[in-house]
Specification:
heterodimer; A: alpha/beta; seven-stranded parallel sheet; 13 helices; 7 strands; B: alpha/beta; 20 strands
């Protein structure tokens, strides 16, 4: 968990631009090939349970209420009330003002509460506000903070500003884990995604995350591939392991399994645990449950056999 | 910690009906051959798949006569637009029966179903579609105002891409108005015979496509037959030389697509993850049974260590095994003879002092298998850097400057293909201009498109297949 000291903005820029480039065509082709893996039978059963245990169950709406958050927490602890063998999800992710509600609802369940602090989703607020946002969420009991980077600063080449913000938020997190959202849809190129990944890791991120879910495109397989290559290379270079979280747009079991294949063959099986890989997706959970029951019973149940939240 | 493994995902064999014995396809009918029938086996488990008729000289003569009659009476005089309809029909049937073709190709050849399904068969259909488009536009192809077909084409193809090579040969020949007698390799005749069935389904006039099976003798009889106007051969340089000798002075047209020892040049500024992927694709695609395989990796010394480290990690994730498993990346070596050759050359590599490395991988006990292999510390003077191995064996050499890369890349008797990996556009152009190779890929490898010509320099042969250029071999301009 060593946060590096930033010697100078010039050094950081030189480092980030010295990283090997990413060939977009090649990265998309590789992701496409991995997506054609055929996962069947016992491997599929294992993958489904693993994916469920990696889900960050999320509600990030302006209309969120305490009741809605409590309902989500109940679902997180018992995704399928009729089947006790279903694993619980990794975490529940809410806005900072809902952290307290979620923490209370999840007490004793072992499920962590994650909160999107730092003026989510745009990140356009004074630094003081972002830090206050973070401190408030941690004080209310959030075990994980999902921060957004300043994409404007990044795109204008002000890497130093992005770096220092991450360092400051990391400090404000205290014991809470920091997930840094790169909002890859706004970074536009894979070269930028790789640079942003390294920037976040060097600044102390515990996790790098693709998207807020509020911008399209959100998580894609090729973007996640590039980030997985970055965490793999970062661990090889520094010995420190950083997690990855694709978020937004992952809706089906098939999608979720494609991500697991990507992790398995890019970063390696060391990342195949909720500790190092998360799926920021809510609607995928019911599809996972449906496929799980299909594998066990041989028949599909209708959507009404699974709870909404 | 959970380790997520993949359960086997075998493709069903039931989509293919393999008969006990197969005849020759002559004049629209399956008939027996007068040679000694031979067996074709599944290289993944050495089981016998079928007995196949062998054509002797008389059978070849019958096939060539059938082709001549069809050329004179039906196919030659037919308007191009009509010929095109048959080619389109064949292309569509190939698409409809793609699963059957892919499964049979993998069983007979040993290549992974993923490649036969995702690469070979779609390209076969693409080739027929592409040349169907040319059939009525030949006068606009740049070979004169009224180019004429050559007549009867004798075609001999190898075992590495049985169906794809068939398409490369038959599609342009038919589009130009020629009729063909094709001899598939003796270890992989089954998909050509299934293609014969597709010709019947497409109601192609009898005699336009004839398929004679057999080994070297059959090929020699076909090439030497006086009724053949054009010979097209893809295979080894040795056999190519014999064919050139046979045809010298006969006035027959000839194209040869022979061996290769392609250089894959990785500059220090390359996108390394994608370059590693391209290196893997360049040499382990189709078990390295690819004439244009990137079998010599030339990597700039400043990044050699990093590239090798990444390459080894990537190679460790290659899945070797059952070709019909949809998750297999590397399948079986096509024959015992080929396996012996790969072993001999790899042993020579070790004896000459190169360092050999393979990822830990368990190979099936039955069948012909060879683990993906990497040689480092290779010098230009080593046999493994000179001779075509035609297997999953990569030789790694290093260079310091762009000039040295080009010099080393060109320092080979072959010149079929090459690869360049760099993020700098001007470096791609500078290098490509200097490489003596028929195909140069930049930041990719082993890409085939029907619109793109393919062929070699030096001992890699002459003539071009594919694209507008591919028409020339089948036209009297």
């Amino acid at each position: 968990m060593s946060t590096e000291t930033l010697n100078s903005a010039a050094e950081l820029r030189a480092f980030l631009h010295g990283l090997p480039g990413v060939d977009q065509v090649g990265a998309e082709e590789r992701a496409g090939r991995l997506a054609s893996r055929s996962i069947k039978a016992s491997a599929k059963a294992e993958a489904i349970d693993l994916a469920i245990s990696m889900v960050d169950l999320t509600t990030l709406e302006g209309a969120d209420t305490a009741g809605k958050v409590r309902a989500l927490c109940a679902k997180a602890a018992h995704p399928d009330p009729s089947d006790a063998s279903v694993p619980k999800v990794a975490a529940v992710c809410v806005y900072p003002d809902m952290v307290e509600v979620a923490v209370r609802a999840l007490a004793g369940s072992g499920i962590g509460v994650a909160s999107v602090a730092t003026a989510f989703p745009s990140g356009r607020a004074p630094m003081e506000a972002k830090l206050a946002d973070t401190r408030a969420a941690v004080a209310a009991g959030a075990a994980e903070i999902d921060m957004v980077i300043d994409r404007g600063a990044f795109l204008s080449g002000d890497y130093g500003k992005v770096f220092e913000e991450i360092v400051a938020v990391k400090e404000a997190c205290g014991p809470a884990h920091l997930k840094v959202i790169l909002e890859t849809g706004e970074l536009a190129t894979f070269d930028n995604v790789r640079r942003a990944s390294w920037l976040a890791m060097r600044a102390g991120a515990d996790f790098i995350k693709t998207s807020t879910g509020k911008v399209s495109p959100a998580a894609t397989l090729p973007v996640t591939l590039v980030m997985l290559e970055a965490v793999r290379d970062y661990r090889a270079a520094t010995g420190r392991q950083v997690g990855v979280k694709p978020a937004g747009g992952i809706r089906t079991t098939k999608d979720a399994i494609k991500y697991l294949v990507l992790v398995n063959e890019t970063a390696g099986p060391d990342w195949l645990t909720p500790e190092w890989f998360r799926l920021g997706a809510s609607s995928v959970l019911n599809d996972l449950l449906m496929q799980r029951r299909k594998l066990a019973t041989g028949v599909y149940s209708g959507p009404d056999y699974f709870t909404l939240d | 910690m959970t380790v997520f493994d993949y359960a086997p995902a075998p493709e069903s064999r039931s989509v293919v009906d393999i008969r006990g014995s197969y005849g020759l396809f002559v004049d629209g009918e399956f008939t027996g051959g007068h040679g000694e029938p031979f067996k074709t086996i599944n290289p993944a488990d050495e089981s016998v798949l079928a007995e196949v008729a062998c054509a002797d000289e008389a059978d070849v003569d019958r096939a060539v006569r059938a082709a001549r009659t069809a050329y004179d009476k039906v196919w030659g005089p037919m308007p191009g637009a009509e010929r095109a309809k048959y080619l389109y029909r064949i292309a569509r049937i190939v698409q409809e029966r793609s699963r059957e073709l892919a499964v049979l190709e993998s069983i007979d050849n040993g290549k992974p179903i993923r490649e036969s399904r995702d690469v070979d068969v779609p390209l076969v259909a693409a080739w027929f579609f592409y040349y169907a488009g040319w059939a009525d536009k030949l006068r606009h192809a740049g070979f004169g105002p009224d180019p004429r077909p050559v007549g009867v084409a004798g075609q001999v193809i190898p075992w590495n891409f049985p169906l794809l090579m068939l398409a490369w040969k038959i599609a342009p020949a038919l589009a130009c108005g020629n009729t063909v007698v094709l001899k598939p390799a003796e270890t992989t005749p089954l998909t050509a015979l299934l293609f014969a069935d597709i010709c019947r389904q497409a109601e192609l006039p009898p005699g336009v496509v004839n398929i004679v099976t057999g080994a070297g003798e059959t090929g020699r009889a076909l090439v030497a037959h006086p009724g053949v106007d054009k010979v097209a051969f893809t295979g080894s340089t040795d056999v190519g030389r014999q064919i050139a000798r046979t045809l010298a002075g006969t006035g027959k047209k000839l194209t040869l697509e022979l061996g290769g020892k392609a250089a894959n040049i990785v500059y220090q500024d390359a996108a390394l993850d994608q370059a590693v992927e391209g290196i893997v694709n360049g040499i382990f695609f189709n078990q390295g049974h690819v004439c244009c395989a990137g079998s010599r990796l030339l990597v700039q010394e400043s990044v050699a260590g990093e590239v090798l480290e990444r390459l080894k990690a990537r190679m460790a994730t290659l899945r070797v095994g059952d070709p019909l498993d949809k998750n297999t990346d590397v399948g079986a070596i096509n024959s015992a003879a080929q396996l012996a050759r790969i072993r001999e050359l790899s042993d020579a590599g070790e004896a000459e002092g190169a360092e050999r490395w393979s990822p830990p991988c368990e190979l099936p006990s039955q069948g012909f298998w060879f683990a993906p292999t990497l040689f480092t510390g290779v010098a230009q003077s080593h046999r493994i850097a000179r001779e075509e191995i035609f297997g999953p064996v990569l030789s790694v050499l290093t260079f310091r400057t762009p000039d040295e890369a080009v010099t080393k890349a060109n320092n080979t008797p072959y010149g079929l293909s090459a690869g360049i990996w760099t993020e700098k556009g001007s470096q791609i152009l500078w290098t490509a201009q200097r490489l003596r190779a028929g195909v140069v890929w930049a930041n990719t490898f082993n890409k085939f498109d029907p619109a793109s010509p393919f062929g070699g320099y030096k001992e890699s042969g002459f003539g071009r297949e594919g694209g507008r250029h591919g028409l020339e071999a089948y036209l009297n301009a």
